[in-house]
Design goal:
Oligomer: single chain
Order of helices and strands: HEEEEEHEEHHHHEH
Strand content: 25-35%
CATH architecture: 2-Layer Sandwich
Shape: elongated
CATH superfamily: Band 7 domain
Protein name: HflK protein
Family: Belongs to the band 7/mec-2 family. HflK subfamily.
Distance between the termini: 81 Å
Radius of gyration: 22 Å
Organism: Methylobacter tundripaludum
Number of helices: 7
Number of domains: 1
Structural class: alpha+beta
CATH topology: Tetrahydropterin Synthase, Chain A
Helix content: 40-55%
Main location: membrane
Keywords: Membrane, Transmembrane, Transmembrane helix
Number of strands: 8
Largest sheet: 4 strands, antiparallel
Length: about 180
């Protein structure tokens, strides 16, 4: 009996959260009549890190952030995806756990795109191309899922070698820059 009541309470709370989330309509009443205003808030997910707020440094999540490049180097990548709901019906009824689905899909797409490029490209000139490809691939998959989500932006927060080899990587860059031009 207690378990059944708990399940019913949990189900009701879930419904309330969904209703609460979608109560973004504001009704303005003035002498001229009633006006509706709809505000879709920007939502986001973090892959490879968690922003703890409070002005402290974001915590890196190695299981999500460490990626293998095509030249078999490991890169620590932190990514943020901003999205909006463009179809409330699809958002509510077509995908069961929307945020987890988007997060897992983003991580999968990110691994595929990073894995198809070499480390120098990921860390330097390829950042904008990588972000554009990740955004396109995530949006295509979410459209296939009919998830009711539109990807507003993908932000590559960091792309660095892992902390364990950061010093060696910096030494290699310095050595490359110190080479004489005639060689």
């Amino acid at each position: 009996m207690i378990h059944e009541n708990h399940k019913r309470h949990e189900k009701n709370n879930r419904k309330n959260r969904i209703v609460g989330f979608f109560v973004l309509f504001v009704l303005f009443v003035s002498p001229r009549g009633a006006y509706f205003w709809l505000s879709w808030t920007m939502l986001f997910i973090e892959v490879g890190y968690r922003d703890t707020g409070r002005g402290s440094k974001a915590a890196t999540i190695p299981q999500e952030s460490l990626m293998l490049t095509t030249d078999e180097n490991i890169v620590n990548v932190r990514l943020a995806v901003q999205y909006q709901i463009n179809n409330a019906g699809d958002y509510l009824f077509n995908v069961k756990d929307r945020e987890a689905t988007l997060k897992q899909l983003t991580e999968s797409v990110e691994r595929a795109v990073i894995g198809a490029n070499n480390m120098d490209f990921v860390l330097t000139e390829g950042r904008s191309e990588i972000v554009a490809q990740i955004k396109r691939d995530i949006q295509a998959a979410m459209d296939d899922y009919k998830a009711g989500i539109i990807i507003a932006s993908v932000n590559l927060q960091d792309a660095l070698p892992p902390e364990e080899v950061q010093g060696a990587f910096e030494d290699a860059i310095c050595a490359r820059e110190d080479k004489p031009l005639d060689q």
